Amino acid sequence: MITNVTTTRSTLPDSKALNTIHQTLHRRHLLPARHYLDSGYPSADLIVSSAKDYGIALVTPVLLDTSPQAKAQQGFAAHDFTIDWDRKRAVCPAGKISATWNDVVQDGVAKTVVAFAALDCIPCPTKEQCTSSRKGRRLSLYPRDLTEAIRTARAQQQDGTWQRDYALRAGVEGSIRQATHTTGLRRARYRGLAKTHLDHTTSATALNLIRLNAWWNGHPLDRTNHSHLARLQLRLAA
């Protein structure tokens, strides 16, 4: 069943709409314990804030590590380094301890830049697996809670149990497909957010009636047939 409808401008990224959705669900006492999302929504900040502010666990595939080592699937990626937040240092896979730990702001975002000494990196036998820099390996880390959240999420989504759990998301995709094929929601019928939101809300109500009718009568949903909305309208009119 569709429990919430949020209408935004088409240029608004999905991640920017999530907090508004959670606020609305919270106000109506409909917050889920687990929120299954596609890959357009997640970020470390949203994973942390959703759990902290609303007690919601986001079940969503997060973006993988984009470091050259991770992309090549060889060498030491950022997640291979042990981060000791309390002592403000990092330990590389070869056992070397970072030389510097600096809290900075990059593009308006708080980060921690960790650097290893060239004297440790250059003669290291595993240097080719780690960095091509002539100075030494550097790591750019988000704040502790964000870094730990994204590392945990990336590790979980590699597990078969997580993947089977995330398969529940297919039900959401089925609802979206039913909405676009039955009510024509791919194209806005009106101008302006207010009228378009009314159209979305009435379409969602119609879909809920279709689903209730199918459930009460023991009929599976036929998402490929466009005429079942018309049949439902005739049945309700009768």
Strand arrangement across the biggest beta sheet: 5-6-7
Helix share, percent: 40-55%
Task: Name the poorly predicted regions.
Answer: none
Structural class estimated from helices and strands: alpha+beta
Q: Sketch the major β-sheet.
A: 3 strands, antiparallel
Strand content: 5-15%
Average residue pLDDT: 85
For the record, give the distance between the C-alpha atoms at the N and C termini, rounded to a whole number: 24 Å
What would you report as the Rg, rounded to the nearest angstrom? 24 Å
Q: What is the overall silhouette?
A: elongated
Encode the helix/strand succession as letters: HEHEHEEEEHEHHHHH
Question: How many DSSP E strands?
Answer: 7
Count of helical stretches = 9
Quick description:
The protein has 9 helices and 7 strands, in the order H-E-H-E-H-E-E-E-E-H-E-H-H-H-H-H. By secondary structure, the protein is of the alpha+beta class.
How would you describe this protein?
Helix content is 43%, strand content 13%. The protein has helices at 14-27, 44-54, 68-72, 118-121, 144-156, 160-166, 169-183, 193-216, 228-237, and strands at 34-36, 57-59, 82-84, 89-91, 100-106, 109-115, 138-141. The chain has a 3-stranded antiparallel sheet with strand order 5-6-7, with no helix packed on it. Strand 3 (82-84) and strand 4 (89-91) form a beta hairpin. It is elongated and about 70 Å long.
